[in-house]
């Protein structure tokens, strides 16, 4: 079975969020289970592409509107990611440094999808499944069925995964001229509320769509930034499959990015050693419990209440706790946190930006991880935390609800209901009460670290879905 994953992110080639982690892991685990899985993505002028060798496997050109675009398909020479990686380079369009934030994103993603299909068609490549990830490649299921140029690919099955339904790729109908010629009677498959909506198009036209947790699938039926009725109407072809984590990369026993490796038997000693190093670097007290936040400063992540949570906890003389913040994003959120650093010096520290190595060290050093998310389709941070014996304190939403069970229900985490600093603080306080009982907290940690959230089970569910479509 040949499956090609289409995405604009893939770790470690280009990462902005969890999409990259999924696309960088799932194909590798699929291959371990016998699937011929590969990834095609845009070329980005970044460290990975500069440091690795690529072979040119094809060249071609196509018209996008009145512009003749030339493309080149590059394959990473050594398959160092555990699967074949193909990059589409288009001079002036797909050869930039950043993944997002360019004013011509619509043109970029249309060009990427057009180039992928042109390459497959002209080289007579017919995969069994095209697995499309998020709205950037949401037009693919429409293009292979209803455009004159690519109908030869119409029998290829399409799976579309919704990583975040809030972002839909809206574009004006003036961009329609950039698409390959299509049957105009089918324009309604592209349209939603008077604009071209690639996410809606994918849900209408794909053979099956998946969400990255069962809980998030149910939430999309009720709220999906205007598409909830569509998700519900198309529910017969929906599947909730929770993401996994790459345990070859995220494992405190073998992780080369942390100071002290440890397993379940050495978790206390290992975490303390890592906490001491982090505390020394950032002026914290290693004798105190450490609560951390890792992620984007965005309202959908609940980061706008972080400053209030910090005030509620560190402003209380009865709470003995250190807090570490690692993230970037909304400037107002960052400034609100930065304003507290001096007031709570010695108990609060932060790194503003993205640092993969530091993230691993924080997971290894922390006792608790807080995720007060408004929207969390799956969430990977809580899965990384559990693997490292860092107990998640999470809002009951989406994938967090599916993967974190409260200790009061014989689980291994602490759950609260609303995006509210008072509720979040109360959940942290409950966790601190457990930490004060070392034997009790060790039992929770052991239970957390014994959980299996690897990709093996999820990859098999995708294989079952592929086989179902091919039958």
Automatic annotation (TrEMBL):
<comment type="similarity">
    <text>Belongs to the glycosyltransferase 1 family. Bacterial/plant glycogen synthase subfamily.</text>
</comment>
<dbReference type="GO" id="GO:0009011">
    <property type="term" value="F:alpha-1,4-glucan glucosyltransferase (ADP-glucose donor) activity"/>
</dbReference>
<feature type="domain" description="Starch synthase catalytic">
    <location>
        <begin position="2"/>
        <end position="229"/>
    </location>
</feature>
<dbReference type="Pfam" id="PF00534">
    <property type="entry name" value="Glycos_transf_1"/>
</dbReference>
<keyword id="KW-0328">Glycosyltransferase</keyword>
<dbReference type="InterPro" id="IPR011835">
    <property type="entry name" value="GS/SS"/>
</dbReference>
<dbReference type="InterPro" id="IPR013534">
    <property type="entry name" value="Starch_synth_cat_dom"/>
</dbReference>
<comment type="pathway">
    <text>Glycan biosynthesis; glycogen biosynthesis.</text>
</comment>
<feature type="domain" description="Glycosyl transferase family 1">
    <location>
        <begin position="281"/>
        <end position="433"/>
    </location>
</feature>
<keyword id="KW-0320">Glycogen biosynthesis</keyword>
<dbReference type="InterPro" id="IPR001296">
    <property type="entry name" value="Glyco_trans_1"/>
</dbReference>
<feature type="binding site">
    <location>
        <position position="15"/>
    </location>
    <ligand>
        <name>ADP-alpha-D-glucose</name>
    </ligand>
</feature>
<keyword id="KW-0808">Transferase</keyword>
<protein>
    <recommendedName>
        <fullName>Glycogen synthase</fullName>
        <ecNumber>2.4.1.21</ecNumber>
    </recommendedName>
</protein>
<dbReference type="GO" id="GO:0004373">
    <property type="term" value="F:alpha-1,4-glucan glucosyltransferase (UDP-glucose donor) activity"/>
</dbReference>
<dbReference type="Pfam" id="PF08323">
    <property type="entry name" value="Glyco_transf_5"/>
</dbReference>
<comment type="function">
    <text>Synthesizes alpha-1,4-glucan chains using ADP-glucose.</text>
</comment>
<dbReference type="GO" id="GO:0005978">
    <property type="term" value="P:glycogen biosynthetic process"/>
</dbReference>
């Amino acid at each position: 079975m040949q499956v090609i994953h289409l995405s604009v992110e893939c770790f470690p080639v280009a990462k902005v969020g969890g999409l990259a982690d999924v696309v960088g892991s799932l194909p590798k685990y699929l291959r371990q289970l016998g699937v011929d899985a590969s990834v095609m993505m845009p070329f980005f002028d970044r460290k990975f592409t500069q440091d690795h060798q690529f072979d040119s496997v094809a060249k071609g050109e196509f018209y996008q509107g009145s512009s003749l675009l030339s493309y080149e398909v590059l394959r990473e020479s050594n398959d160092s990611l555990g699967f074949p990686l193909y990059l589409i380079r288009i001079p002036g369009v797909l050869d930039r440094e950043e993944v997002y934030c360019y004013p011509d994103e619509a043109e970029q993603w249309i060009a990427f999808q057009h180039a992928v299909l042109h390459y497959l068609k002209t080289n007579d490549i017919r995969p069994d499944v095209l697995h499309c990830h998020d709205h950037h490649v949401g037009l693919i299921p429409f293009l292979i069925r209803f455009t004159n140029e690519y109908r030869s690919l119409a029998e290829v099955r399409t799976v579309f995964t919704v990583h975040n339904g809030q972002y839909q790729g809206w574009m004006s109908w003036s961009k329609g001229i950039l698409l390959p010629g299509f049957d105009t009677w089918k324009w309604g498959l592209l349209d939603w509320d008077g604009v071209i909506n690639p996410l809606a198009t994918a849900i209408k036209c794909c053979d099956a769509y998946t969400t990255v947790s069962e809980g998030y699938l149910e939430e999309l039926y009720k709220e999906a930034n205007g598409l909830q009725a569509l998700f519900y109407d198309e529910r017969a072809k929906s599947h909730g499959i929770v993401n996994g984590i790459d345990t070859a990369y995220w494992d405190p026993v073998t992780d080369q990015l942390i100071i002290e490796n440890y397993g379940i038997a050495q978790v206390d000693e290992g975490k303390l050693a890592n906490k001491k190093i982090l505390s020394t670097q950032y002026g914290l007290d290693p004798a105190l419990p450490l609560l951390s936040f890792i992620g984007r400063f965005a309202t959908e992540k609940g980061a706008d209440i972080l400053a209030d949570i910090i005030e509620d906890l560190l402003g209380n003389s009865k709470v003995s706790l250190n807090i570490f913040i690692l993230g970037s994003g909304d400037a107002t959120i960052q400034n609100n946190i930065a304003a507290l650093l001096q007031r709570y010096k010695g108990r609060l520290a932060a790194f503003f930006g993205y640092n993969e190595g530091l993230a691993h060290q924080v997971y290894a050093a922390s006792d608790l991880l807080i995720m007060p998310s408004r929207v969390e389709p799956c969430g990977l941070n809580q899965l990384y935390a559990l693997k490292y014996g860092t107990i998640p304190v999470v809002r009951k939403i989406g994938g967090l609800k599916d993967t974190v069970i409260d200790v009061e229900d014989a689980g291994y985490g602490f759950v609260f209901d609303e995006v509210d600093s008072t509720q979040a603080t109360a959940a942290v306080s409950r966790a601190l009460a457990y930490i004060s009982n070392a034997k009790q907290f060790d039992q929770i940690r052991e239970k957390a670290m014994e959980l299996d959230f690897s990709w093996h089970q999820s990859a098999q569910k995708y294989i079952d879905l592929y086989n179902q479509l091919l039958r």
